[in-house]
Amino acid sequence: MFQARLFAHGMLSAPLPSEPEFFEVGNTILSDRWYTVYPPGYPAVLALGVIFKISWLVNPILGALTIVCIFLLAKELYGRTTAKLSAMLACASSFFLFMSSEFASHTSTLFFITLAFLCFVWMVQKKRPLLSAVVCGASLGIALLCRPYTTVWFCVPLEIAAIVKRKELSLRHILIGAILILVACCAFLAYNYATTGHPLLFGYIAMHGKDHYPGFHQAPWSNQAHTVAQGFKHVFSNLNALSIFLFEWPIPSLFFACIFLASGKKRFWEWLLVGWIGTLLVGQFFYFFNQLDFGPRFMYECLPALILLTSQGLSLTTQFITSQWKSLSEVHAQNILGLVLIGLFLFAFLFNVPATVKTYQYYGTDVTIKKYLDKNDVEQALVFVKGGRAYQVHYPFNAPFAKPHIYAKDRGSENKKLAEKFPGYRYFIADKEKVEEVSIDELQQTEPKSK
Q1: Which of 35, 85, 203, 430 could form a disulfide with 435 if both were Cys (CB 3.0 to 4.6 A apart)?
Q2: What's the whole-model pTM score?
Q3: 3-class SS at 92?
Q4: What's the rounded Cα separation, in Å, for the pair 290 and 296?
């Protein structure tokens, strides 16, 4: 949100604030300029929400559009019935709903790579191939600007598919898509140059050093090195988490997808869906970080492939039921399976999802301080915020700086040093539950806070 607010005000970075130590927060760089480590794509998308004052709606809108893409993709590959089933599975996936309801960049990346995959299918099937090539290339380019590591791995099976389907594809259309991706790469390099000072120096590396690159080496933020064994652990950990978080059924969420994969009934497109999932798992094999705070969020971008494979597994189960019980029609078998699905989702939403809600609520903090200042018509305020989460959620309002409220880290008796830089402001000590106005002399009497 900090970077999005900068973009919304026409800035790639901000000048250094007075007394930078009051504005230190995770993944934010305060060196020659003031900016975040994040790639520019998602902040640019989020900036539209800032401009129209609906930033909280950006990811839900992208999530809804992703469901549309999943429906169209399933319809193109398997027909309208499977498309309806896939859309319903997406709507009922707690993992999808929660991840589409917060501010991380995964949702934007998911939308753009799903749209790119859909357009690739249309290119192969020669449905408006020129327009499809343009949208496919542009979508991959934007996804690259949102989450480059995930997008690069997603492109691997797509490139292999383009080679396999070269007879169905026009070289001109492939080049058009490739040029648009190249444009996005150049934009990324230009952004790096404008912020970190070098086109090949990414924000994460500028802040955390070369140990932040994927690979087998000492892992940042840990005393443990990332090894091959750790890589395999990450792969199986993500698969296990997907099997729990995807639908939160009392049975493994990947049950029907595994039935389909074990059946041997796979065509080109099913192998491509498997490649979509598999390459993202390979990416996790090489990546040192595997925290599951919001479930397997680094595998979130393969959700459409999992849903389509689940739909196919359900169709295969229907065929198995009718083959075993000859007296049952296909409609009756579908009704039976539908009742089973209703039971699974009812169990999930009654017993499992409430615990997941609490997990997400744990990380959520309201902007209570800003609401207090707005309600009381405080025009210029310098607020020293106690508590890490309350400080983090108010931090984005510092961009652009000093218009009209400034949120600084509470540093106890050092607070007066910053307050002296802003004469004419009203001064507050606050946390998420209490806002107290103080004088500049009272600031010096505050006990020091840990950094």
Answers
A1: 430
A2: 0.95
A3: helix
A4: 8
